[in-house]
Amino acid sequence: MASTLLSARDLRFLLYDWLDAESLTRRPSYADHSRETFDGALDLAERVATDHFAPHNKANDTDEPRFDGERVHVIPQVGKALEVLAETGLNAAGLPASVGGGQLPHVVAGACNAWFQAANPGSAAYPFLTVGNARLLLAHGTPEQVDTYVRPMVEGRFTGTMCLSEPQAGSSLADITTRAQDAGDGTYRLFGNKMWISAGDHELTENIVHLVLAKIPGGPAGVKGISLFIVPKHLVNADGSLGERNDVVPAGLNHKMGYRGTANALLNFGEGRHTPGGRPGAVGYLVGEPHQGLRYMFHMMNGARIGVGSGAAALGYTGYLKSLAYARERLQGRALGDKDPSRPPVPIVEHTDVRRMLLAQKSYAEGALALVLYCARLVDEAETAPDAAARERADALLDVLTPVAKSWPSQWCLEANSLAIQVHGGYGYTREYDVEQHYRDNRLNAIHEGTHGIQALDLLGRKAVRGGGAGLALLLETAGATSARARARGGAEAEFADLLDAALDRVARTAAAAWAGGDPAEALANATPYLEAVGHVVVAWMWLEQLVALGDAGDARDAGDAAFRAGKRAAAAYFFRHELPRTGPQFDLVASRDRTVLDTPPDVL
Amino acid sequence: MASTLLSARDLRFLLYDWLDAESLTRRPSYADHSRETFDGALDLAERVATDHFAPHNKANDTDEPRFDGERVHVIPQVGKALEVLAETGLNAAGLPASVGGGQLPHVVAGACNAWFQAANPGSAAYPFLTVGNARLLLAHGTPEQVDTYVRPMVEGRFTGTMCLSEPQAGSSLADITTRAQDAGDGTYRLFGNKMWISAGDHELTENIVHLVLAKIPGGPAGVKGISLFIVPKHLVNADGSLGERNDVVPAGLNHKMGYRGTANALLNFGEGRHTPGGRPGAVGYLVGEPHQGLRYMFHMMNGARIGVGSGAAALGYTGYLKSLAYARERLQGRALGDKDPSRPPVPIVEHTDVRRMLLAQKSYAEGALALVLYCARLVDEAETAPDAAARERADALLDVLTPVAKSWPSQWCLEANSLAIQVHGGYGYTREYDVEQHYRDNRLNAIHEGTHGIQALDLLGRKAVRGGGAGLALLLETAGATSARARARGGAEAEFADLLDAALDRVARTAAAAWAGGDPAEALANATPYLEAVGHVVVAWMWLEQLVALGDAGDARDAGDAAFRAGKRAAAAYFFRHELPRTGPQFDLVASRDRTVLDTPPDVL
């Protein structure tokens, strides 16, 4: 019985037949790994996700974290799952061996993570935020900070958070007011309130390591005056034992539509509930240099954005597999035009419109998963490629793809989950089935870690123009190489290569047209349709990449494999014929510098 | 302070300046009414919806109906709201005076109903289903049945249901197995199980009148053997008093993602819990002729489908108004390019992408409301137009518009609610704000009363081809007349008239192209994109109708009115420039008779 979380077969195709993950084992960083250790990690992730995360996904939803005014209570299954995760080492599979991590390449660790995101995004958020936190400290912390905070995170004893938003400052971090006063002893004292802090408080682990953006009084105004601090829930003594309670306390939890398993807290810093060392304020330790906090945080944020895309893809994927399983079993109606009620009803997968909804889901979910794994592979390339030019190239391509990898899965795998409900009919709208929860959970992804609109401004306002459009040019060159390979194969690949080339041509031309007037307000008025159109073009490219990889991998070896290949071909065809054409009117609109929205004054709405 | 449920100003514009509802008072059916009585009903509906329905909308969601194994418990606020509704007569505002109803035209009653659908769809479903039930009995029941069941429904003492689906037969009514055995005394005895019965059991009223589809043994197989029965929860004595408990009992409730205020039951008929008259089976009374049940039920169903569209539009509308209010108040960020953090943040409505999300919502919600009221106006025309040709014409146009009026608001006002969440950012994803509930509630509308895919088959498989495509031709002729009037005005109206004409041209040509191969499976393989494209064209027409009506109504009378007009113009412009172009690739796909989905075998998914 195949899993309804993800397809192990597809992951292996993506990792090995397409992204050539095995070649990474020839690099020094991954020399201790092999195809066997990769497969072992993937199998283990599937098993732990299936046995320890999926079973309480619904309980996370129905029995969400609770705040009693003092403590945050999370159902015990979450703690148990995190324990198993730490025992297996999967919590830190992608972290360096130097701190006790598994040293897996990003692309393999990313594939492992997708199992947990499909099984239980609420519980998976705790270790995922912890890894992001650890990576930031590995990059910008001192050796002591790494020893004190990262190692216990790797061991599963501490979890981590990122504390950016405040009640009055969400997307606009320039306006944060949390302040960090120099205590004169090498530490700082923090005062302020942070909002939307995922995994912000709980008792699942001994300690919580908050990474907090705050302003040092007297520093520059706006984002240039933001510094980054470690603020542990409990102070850590020199020997690693826990010391005093720090003055960071939950003030309440947010009650969300979905994603309920992750305790999401409003945190007060330095409100006076505790006074470590007898002095007011939450003790904080500066990370790196003062006023560089936002830059450090974006180190974590870019990874988090791809993680959001991966989470959206994983939910889209499991919704697809569950609705496919349902459609194969549920009997209803007869073939079109068959009016003979004496014949038995057919499985609904026989109905064309049901297959349309399944094929659309497949094209979104598999396309999105391919995209986020491609990005993870670029991270590996940026970190470990033998020559500097290749590393820079991967970094530049990743830079331009990040807003797409965050936003496209969030939009289209939500749509996939809506289609998964629709395939189930009324049953899918009930809480007896999983898909309604997936839909609610997935709706978060277009909001957190930078909203959809913020991603659009990032793409058209920064990534598409920086360096004279070098990032876009690199994207077009790379995707163009794919279509050249595909065209050489003829047949459907050649058809799709032509479609992709035409769409790629519009990507750069449209950005240029948007900016041709020289007015940023006008250029960016339609940034969101631009982001969405580019997203569809990028995912079309991912589909063509997969078709090329199918071809490279030789002929079908068995019947199951033939079905796998035919399914990939059908989903690619669906994407090129039903989806990619959507971009035409979007590019037209952006290129025309349509001012309808820009010129609508707020008071007429 | 304007309502955030609906806009009373917009309703008056739609009813009077556009749909000329006042002219209906010159017809005998509505001769007792006047603009004043219409306004009185609208004001009353707004007040009752605001004071008695909106306040417990959230409680309906958090404290959903509960089944204790015997009885269904609904929060008391629902009963109180229904009492007020019956006291004001708004529960039966559109039913004939002959049975105690308010005899309002459908278009005015529809506008009144929209207030309740915006305020609290869960509670509003009880009276709405009752009205549908009453209308069916008025059309097909005997005078005794009307006296016994309809009058108490008008008085608010009974509610009604429609019992179609069974666990194994949802969209495929041919497969229902509930059977009705002739008891030999003019009554029948029913045995079977019905699923998804909204308002199926509760104790809000003295009695519940179930209208049940069942098969009389020995009748034709399939849909041709379906008959319709009245099955009251409590038998009704000749003097109108309640008699024995009938053998229809709830077996459980469905726990839904949204729309939770409406108790949705699995009902067992004749399982033996009660034995009225000492004999097994639930007592049922045949409505009309045997084996004509489906035809009668569709009398109710067509109205219910427009009601679903109206409910979707109302939720889209209130989500729009709430996110607009939020966007005017929430301060965040600065104007594009303003990097000076010392300046205060601006209301987010100043950000272009936020205005885009508001304008999109406005174009969807106001467009959808216009469409459903236009359909209600057609019902009035079909019932009361002075000459037979006009009545037939209205009926034919309504027939072709019904699948669009059901499906388009369900799709796009759900998208509006998603945008309403997005405007609120993280706050919109929490249960502290209303919009996440609207989104969950609205997701039902693409499922019940005929799924999205069923509407698509209805449009392209039946309505577009029946009578040689006469329905479509009538639609095109009617919409074409609108564009001719708009073109004569010049300016933006002329621009939009050209765009509408080009799109209308594709509506008929594409249907013809889809069917050109003569193979229904091929023609209907892309029925859903066809439905969606036609929906966008129809709503563009509705927008042009509104612009023409704005012009007809003369110049702005005051500043508030000028803003109203400018808002309508902006939303129309948004719809024509950002939305209508989406249809191009959809029509291309359908016209090409793309076989991608059709040719994908189920086993490769």
Characterize the structure shown.
2 copies of one chain form a homodimer. Chain A is an alpha+beta fold. Chain A has a domain at 451-600. In chain A, 55% of the residues lie in helices and 11% in strands. Chain A is built from 18 helices and 12 strands. The first copy, chain A, has helices spanning 8-18, 35-53, 57-62, 76-88, 106-119, 121-140, 143-154, 293-329, 352-384, 388-424, 435-442, 452-463, 466-489, 491-515, 520-523, 527-552, 559-579, 583-591; strands at 66-67, 72-73, 158-163, 179-182, 188-198, 207-215, 226-232, 234-236, 242-245, 248-253, 264-269, 282-286. In chain A, strands 3, 4, 5, 6, 7, 10, 11 and 12 form an 8-stranded mixed sheet that branches. A two-stranded antiparallel ribbon of chain A has the order 1-2. In chain A, β8 and β9 form a beta hairpin. In chain A, α9 runs antiparallel to α10 (388-424) and α14 (491-515) packs antiparallel against α16 (527-552). Chain A is globular. The mean pLDDT of chain A is 96. At the A-B interface, α8, α9, α10, α11 and α12 of A face α8, α9, α10, α11 and α12 of B.
Question: Could you name the key traits of this structure?
Answer:
eight-stranded mixed β-sheet, 605 residues, two-stranded antiparallel sheet, 18 helices, alpha+beta, homodimer
